Amino acid sequence: QVQVVQSGGGLVQAGNSLRLTCTAARTFGVYAMGWFRQAPGKEREFVAGISRTGSSQVIDSVKGRFTVSKDNAKNTVYLQMNSLKPEDTAVYYCAADPRDVLTTTPTYWGPGTQVTVSS
User: What is the share, in percent, of the chain residues with pLDDT greater than 90?
Assistant: First the structure.
């Protein structure tokens, strides 16, 4: 059974940085991995991801501020979040998938971690 373990998150002031870390444990092979978020009263949305072959993608609203990276040997993905804004406040979920790319319906989800950005 694959386990998705997250760490990081917390409360920061606007303009500051946070890093989220996620590891997909008990896996065989390289996984596509990435991050989604869900703000209060909103639907869960894709934020950033990396395919099994290393292609990365981030949504426009975080481009230039968030960077996603991955260590294939550890099946670990990172989300470096800089210049945080109050609108980035959400529960952030890590996702992992044995398919080539991360879709909107990944196979495995992490438990979520709260990120709160104060103004």
Answer: 87
